[in-house]
From TrEMBL, chains A, B, C, D:
UniProt KW keywords: Lyase
GO molecular function, one term: 4-hydroxy-tetrahydrodipicolinate synthase activity
Cellular component aspect of the GO annotation: cytosol
Domain of life of the organism encoding this protein: Bacteria
Gene3D superfamilies membership: Aldolase class I
Protein name (Swiss-Prot/TrEMBL): 4-hydroxy-tetrahydrodipicolinate synthase
Annotated positions binding pyruvate: M206
Family matches, as Pfam families: DHDPS
Annotated organism of origin: Yoonia sediminilitoris
Protein family per UniProt: Belongs to the DapA family.
Length: 294, 294, 294, 294
């Protein structure tokens, strides 16, 4: 991977499970092929992968299978955030050893230590890891543009900032104003404002992996300056799904897994616990929408 | 342990580290003896132990050494909260196998699934674990008294509710009104309002482990009805320390480890990263206060 | 108003200002006629009216002109929330004297006094006010379903609960389960999930007032059981606008006022300070979307 | 007032009410004399005055009586924050006309407009008001040090920053590092960390007005370098009261009013609604503590 620019559509892979909750690696491989065939620019393993519900051994397996299946065709990003610096370093070394092309990290902490506690993590990573790093600004651990700037000036290996603090549109603007000359700004909110973020300087987005062909098409229209074509496709396919996926708790996992199941990419739409339950009304709403598309 | 009532003073053990951040088990053993000698009614391994900065192997080792050292003299409580239900079950089984006397769990989640997602965890635990459970209400994952009641009616093995949502005094009152006939209510805030919580129905507290003799003395005065004696001791020794320990981020780790180091109980006051840094002014403030007492 | 059921589409009137920020009452009258002609089932003066930027005299004038213009054709709801109980009572009496048909109140407080401090307010209102009350559950002062139930059992004059805590869909479900036999549940989020809320028991919504004919049409389709027709109209017109209106800070004021200005209903789209600024990119985005519709 | 430096002890006056909730101006005058006699360096009318429960006419009366009673002996600070810029300007002009020596303002808003929306307010104030301004950083509307710096560079009339975001000690440090050369940094938390804040550059604090002689004494000891004497007095008198006053909701109003009533300064300890109720246990706790001192 000589040109790691982290631009474009970098879907986060869901983790496919079987009906008993075990990882289904065949489905994972199919999912990866499906996304690469759609033209994505990278793939990620992160919160959208229910990564925090995987054991350490499972994380390793998922990354290993992903790297082997991808086989260098696109960069693979691995989230190695952890509430302890030692653990984050250990996860990061492991990710590098297993072949990840970049790390994605947010200032995770159970205690109030502030985003700048990441400086210590980045210093320690220097001894062991050579991969570029994508900073993450998540609602559970927000980082303002001023703090990102301080981190970047300290840790030059930082390659991108992934925005997730809501609303993401002005947050992208603030990041672009402060750090765009040093970092790639990546949009958030599952792509729900990808066109607006693009206009303000975002140069990538990390959506779920259930509709990669639509995201790639919207992206290419944006690059080509065809905003109105991008918008029609976005509204029809992407926004209708994202709106449903945001209506309650973490039902986004269920919605995107059900899409992939219906499209024949994964064998089962199982979501690991804890997750909100899908009652009959909600399931009917999902079915009705998916009937339109797939 | 036939009488697991979780009443009284149940300090959370800090994890002693050496100067390089490795676990110092000799210090851990001394710390346990120090607390038992002071008359504590139980010991816990939890957030105050920096448990979230320990690897899985380290968690096991800390629990194993603790159980062996305690050797049945008081009950040992192990926090087995995890963001995935499978992981929490796995940690809980492991804790039971290693000899813990009770589990402490809060509704940890990176995604909005609500406190009632714990019902599923408790159902699954039934298949593998027979230990009593202490529910935790923490600021990062608050549970209201109505939700606690629903959980308890569902999962009868729940033995206690540990309150940490600030301010804890009215939260103890609300819990006592809703669930005191079924659960022991345990106070929070590092014991900073232990007398007020006691008056409202709390029957235990889980402070740091650096001043166990003072906490036990206050507790015994409360049981004996000597509130004013309890108050003088509390104000002089406990509140002065707790006030300092609350003045910035997570400096409580540093303050309590420095007390234990100064008292000759642990060899080093090292706190694992991430943690807020202690500048020269703060260190002088810690030194000045500790000079008064130790 | 013999049948105050607070069902259906009850838009919140924006307050039209002239270019200097003074209230434009001619535009207000036109806005009211425009909404009544569209078939709305009620009209409200509330947060969507920038009510908190109006002086007391201006509030009175806006309500007076609204009541006179409406002239009994639909019920008029007035928000009389205030951080002091005396002030809320005074605003409520004034609203009743000026002819409002119902009050809308949320547990506003600068200090942590809890939703049940509303009980005292409701008791005091009994001495002076006979109007029905719509409780509001807003993000700045959320009320859970259990607390709403306690309030309703105490204050039988409560007629409805307006949900605004995000996400609103499960909040509507919780309210419907706890209090639907006593209260009308009204959906929130500017109508962005009005179809989903309806399915879960909501019997009204209070959107902005810029597209009343579309909201009424969707509502009527829902009542007639034509969900798919409702959905097409909703997605095309309402959701596209609401999505834009949510992308940054409080730009919803600007978006809806610009729609009304473009449609010839109000003379000026001025929003009072403080409000987020609309930069050139955002203005172009608004223009592009409105060009499609109006 | 030629030397408005806003340094030292500037208590916030409670608003004394009679048993029916009307303002008791005789008690207010006594309260002012009591504080001036204690040597305070200024007096304020703000959140601690329940200002948000006063009608506009009552605010005017309180300020008028305060200015007349103070009669230039110390500066009088008036909080004129409001959710609308026009209202804040109007309140500020009125405060200047009535003789206030400074304004205190925080970025109050019901909608997400950000602290920098204050720039517009400050620009508009320039046309009407010549008073210096104390910025407020409150939990309900926090301002980071970077934002304060931007505001101060824009609005040179800003004279001080009052810190209230918890924990205040590191927030004082951040403010001192960013803006101490331009602004006086004033500590918060009702003075609970006044010694620690002083060490980090705070040059004043705004406590409640029930123990002014103790605050002044602590302050003078700090200025004289007698920190340990300051500490003993602080722990004995101030911290014991502040700890009790923080144990539940807004009981600080009740605690400080009861102190003043017991000391014979005000005729009644009435707190306006909404406020949390004081149950029998809490009242006994207040009585027991006050019996020690007064």
């Amino acid at each position: 991977m000589s040109q790691l620019n982290f631009q474009g559509i970098i879907p986060i892979l869901i983790t496919p499970f079987d009906a008993k909750g075990g990882i289904d690696f065949d489905s994972l491989q199919q999912l990866i092929e499906f996304n690469i065939a759609a033209g994505v620019h990278g793939l990620g393993i992160a919160l959208g992968s229910e990564i925090f519900k995987l054991s350490d051994a499972e994380r390793d397996q998922v990354l290993k299978v992903t790297v082997e299946t991808v086989n260098g065709r696109v960069p693979v990003v691995m989230n190695t955030s952890a509430p302890g610096t030692d653990i984050a370093v250990s996860l990061s070394r492991r990710a590098q050893d297993l072949g990840a092309d970049a790390l994605m990290i947010y200032p995770m902490s159970f205690m109030p230590t502030g985003p700048e506690s990441m400086l210590d993590l980045f210093d320690r990573l220097d001894a062991f890891v050579t991969l570029p790093i994508i900073l993450q600004d998540v609602p559970q651990a927000p980082i303002g543009a001023d703090a990102v700037r301080r981190i970047v000036l300290h840790a030059s290996r930082t390659a991108a900032i992934k925005v997730e603090t809501l609303p993401t549109v002005p947050q992208v603007s603030r990041m672009a104003a402060k750090v765009a000359e040093k970092l790639t700004v990546i949009g958030g909110a599952g792509g729900s404002y990808m066109i607006e973020e693009f206009r303000r300087g975002a140069r990538g987005t990390m959506p779920f992996c259930s509709q990669p062909e639509d995201f790639v098409a919207v992206w290419n229209h944006l690059l080509d300056g065809n905003e109105s074509t991008a918008r029609v496709l976005f509204d029809d396919k992407i926004m209708a799904i994202n709106r449903l996926a945001a209506q309650d708790g973490d039902i986004f996992y269920h919605v995107h897994k059900q899409i992939l199941h219906r499209r024949g990419i994964i064998a089962n739409a199982y979501v690991r616990s804890p997750t909100c339950s899908i009652d009959a009304i909600t399931q009917r709403e999902i079915d009705t929408l998916l009937d339109q598309f797939y």
